[in-house]
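Students often ask what a holo structure prediction actually looks like on paper. The answer is less mysterious than it sounds. You provide the chain, you provide the ligand, and the output is a string of discrete structure tokens encoding the 3D arrangement of the protein together with zinc ion.
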Amino acid sequence: MSSSEGAPESWISSFCSLMGHEFFAEVSEDFIEDDFNLTGLQSQVPMYKEALEMILDVEPEEDEDEDEEEEEEEDEDELLGDEKLPGYRRAGDRRHTRVASDLSVIESSAELLYGLIHQRYITSRPGIQQMLEKYEMQHFGVCPRVYCNGCKVLPVGRSDTPGQETVKLFCPSCQDLYTPPNSRFHSVDGAFFGTTFGCLFFMTFPDLDIGPRLDSSLVSPARSSTVNNQVSPDVPPAHQPVEINGVRTANFCPGLGLGKIYESRIYGFRVSERSRTGPRMKWLRMKPTDVEELNEMARYEAARREADNDGDTEMGAAPAGGAQNSAIAKRKKAPMRRRRYNPDQMSINGAEAG
Amino acid sequence: MMEDFNSETDSDYTSYWRDWFISSRGNEYFCEIDEEYLTDRFNLTGLNTEVPYYQYALDLVTDVFDLDADDDLREQIEKSARHLYGLVHARYIVTTRGLTKMVDKYKKGDFGKCPRVMCEGQPLLPMGQHDIPNMSTVRLYCPKCEDLYNPKSSRHASIDGAYFGASFPSMLFQVYPGLVPEKSTSRYEPRIYGFKVHAAAALARWQDQYREDMKSRLRDAGMEVNSQGCIIGKRGQ
Ligand SMILES: [Zn+2]
Ligand SMILES: [Zn+2]
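The corresponding structure tokens follow.
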């Protein structure tokens, strides 16, 4: 069944060593040979059987009868795919006449099939483990964002359906998505990594250190100097929880928050928010200094107790209004207000400019 | 926009060194500094102490270098010339004429595109996080997400950020407010088997509230604000 000893590389390892395929894990044959793992893929991949055999390096079986209505058979092959196994046997025989076109169809089907299996494999226990090794060896690169300090990224898709979008890189430090810097990845289908893998990975390995790791001598912008884009980070209040919403606090977006946000300045003076060209996107890179602000359940409960009402609030009703909800809203706003600084201090460009 | 064709480098004079410099691989972010800017001593104030072999370096940059130097010295002076060019460059690109040149390069995408998926290929601008040399390398500023990125090519990653300066992008948009791109509130929403991830969703809600707070502040100050939080006018106008 499988390729003989000493034979050249398997299809899988040669596929994974192709230029641009560096992100792929080598799916184990065990995983592919378990039919359960392939459920539903037959209908998504043309020439499924042939593709699967190619992936597993199975030689197509020989068959004698050559002289049948080839044209019709071919059409049926296309239509019926794997359900018509005898058709394929003949196809193997007709290799001399159809070799080029046939093989290239099977080859691209095999790549599609491998990609779809790969999407499932990397969310399985052995697959995610293999991706962890690649991640730790920095096979996927680092976040291009300066304030993420070279945090390692993970390949993900924005869709689970092939043909929609190419592979992207997910950074756990800023929770954002980036285009791979090297154009060789710009033709790799994102669905081969899928939408679930990124988050599942970091939930599976919650203790991975995603904090700063580059030598900070040149990279870190936190050094004092006459011109510095940093705002001094507020010190979080004591007793920060170890975990927030299921994520270790230390690993919760270490690249975001005060001190990790670009501050537009001209000759050292901050450009005012009230300027037409002032900062508009700080929210995107902001996180609360006190992560408890994100513990919505606790805050909701607290507000509920405080509201001292009939206590018939429903979960879904929170934003709808009413006395109780305005109490919640007040509480929600309170920490926001406290956090505000006066953006016009030190500003050379107030409301009138622009 | 002021178009000042006269101050284009004199056509009868070829700027060998500067031509060579800006067309060298890795120097794609630099624009050509005008001859007249370089020869006005006022623009170079303070640089003589910053650059070794200052006068030779300046002579080299302005193509009047005629010292019969040995290879070692020549090499030193060459290095100084590149350093001098960079430091003058930071000053030049915040002048009217320098800004014009950099705007052209920005529009051509000479500085690359934002790697952030949601920014959809927004052109970038080079800048430094410091105005003092040897502090940090060049960064790329995206005016759409207002964040800083490292150049993807290693040949750009070693350029001193001080050759562009910390004020440059802010200055450019101050002078050309029409070039500020439209902002976007779309963000990546991590999902697991189709479900939003709670930690990320809670942060997203908090960030949205942060943006709403900014909009309220601006409205309180009498501004008319669009849904992205950009000022589109003043109330009562
Ligand atoms: Zn990042
Ligand atoms: Zn951007």
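Residues A 143, 145, 148, 151, 171, 173-174, 176, 255 surround zinc ion (ligand 1) (CB under 6 Å).
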